[in-house]
Amino acid sequence: MKKIHAALAVSAVAALALTGCSAGQGGGADDGKKSIVVDFWAGSETDVSALEAQVAAARELNPDINIEVRTSPWGDFFTKLTTNMASGNMACVTGMNSGKLAGYAEAFMPLTEADLKTAGIVSDEFDPGSFEILSHDGNLLGLALDMSTMVTYYNEDMLAESGAPIPEIGWDFNDFEATVKGGTTDTHAGFGIGMGGFQWQALPIAKAGQQPVKDDGTLDLTNKAFVDAATWYGELVTKQKVALPAGSASDIGWGENQLTSGQAAVAVDGTWNAVSYLDNDLGFKGGLAPLPSAGEQSKGLVLGSGYGVSADCEDKESALKVIGGMLSAAGQDSIAESGRAYPARISSQPLYYESLDPAYRDQVKETFDAAFANVEGQNVTNNWDQIETFLQPQLVSVYGGQTSMADVLSTAQTQFEK
Predict the structure, then answer these.
(1) What is the mean pLDDT of the chain?
(2) Lowest mean pLDDT, pick from 28-42, 128-142, 239-253
(3) Is pTM beyond 0.85 here?
(4) Which whole-number Å values give the CA distances from 149 to 89, 236, 383, in the listed order?
């Protein structure tokens, strides 16, 4: 049985990583060309191949630049990045994920309109939301290669068998409760409760219309709207009894795996996993829909990964040209045609849908169009990783009824707000 892996909004298209050579310059070139190292993450040969297609586009547009690409797994990448940041030895072109940006903001050069022009980036050719993905504190620190948001996935066979309403575009939280209650039986839960950061926070943010961090980066875990929505979310387990509690804090993909294993009818996950849920060997007909709406206050997050120019870079112009080449039409088309990720470039987005099986192509497009229509960039504090590391294991106690969501959020606010 195929498992859907939980992700911290990790781009479905992986790229490169490693320690950079001397301020990000590619060492060893003796042909007189300028050299640039691109530093990103990749977890498999297919990830590397997908990245190489983007780099090939950059090389085609920049024959006077040697581009060195190196890869390492996600976790190793950020360990090395921390070390390189401290030593002033980052690669000129360094990859970054939206959820990690705040902790590494000082490592990147802010990008100006002039920089975008140097890179060959025409803003109107990219989805407006993509420029929020790698922005922090009013500065554009990188350019997104892909876009993601959170959506609802479901087991259509299970819902039909139990007579529960099927999720659809335009549904609201009353509809959501009717679906997960109707989908709860003696043999399976109606909802797979989330344990990952985006997986559990998505519905509370949508319901509250507020993020747990303010626009200025101030921690706001105890704002009433978010606390009430997060409490409602935990009570899907403890009071409404439509979800099963996670066994341990290590069950990071609990809700998603409940769905894929046939133990829950509905779960929330990122658009990066759309193909995995729909084109699968899971033994059921899968479907997807946007998150339920809370009316005008409803809110979703736009997530993703991309490339920035390190503050250590000695050749900003070449770095910008490399990034521009990787995000060119050819580079973006390559990731869209593979079906691996939803690209940031508008002209490449139709190719993503064309790569999908016709059986679910229209449903994916309609869901994506609706889901991306009301999104904003994620607000995070500089210590957001630490906050999420604290919160995630506490969810086991919340879902188990040993402590309240309000108490957990209050403790985290007190401990981390300074």
Answers:
(1) 91
(2) 28-42
(3) yes
(4) 33, 22, 22
